[in-house]
Each structure stands twice: as structure tokens, then as C-alpha cells.
Amino acid sequence: MTLKEVKNYAKVRGVKPEGTKSNIIRAIQAAEGYLACFGTRPVAECPEESCLWRQDCLHHA
User: Fold this and answer.
1) Number of domains in the chain
2) Is pLDDT above 90 for 31?
3) Of 24, 59, 32, 27, which is closest to residue 48 (Cα–Cα)?
């Protein structure tokens, strides 16, 4: 997703779209009940296989 798309998604979820794309995604993850871990560890170690951000995270690493 582009930064603009991430910000729009955040607004819909009630999350303030502030900071970097990674920070916004982590805030969304937390609001949705996932680990707020986007880009913080190797995706191979990620237990959140159903996370919306998984593919972006693969490319972020």
C-alpha cells in the first residue's frame, strides 16, 4: 500500500495517521489486536500469518 492508502486505512480504523508509514502500520496492527511489529524482525519469524501487512513487511525487510 502507498502511504496515502495506509493513512486512509488508519483513519477508517480510528488510528491517527501520524509519523512514518511503518509507525502508522504498527499503530494499526495494535488497534486490530496484532503484534505491532511491522518491519521489526525477519518475516520468517512472524507468527501473524493472517496479518494484512505481511506482504508489505516482506518487501520492507
Assistant:
1) 1
2) yes
3) 32
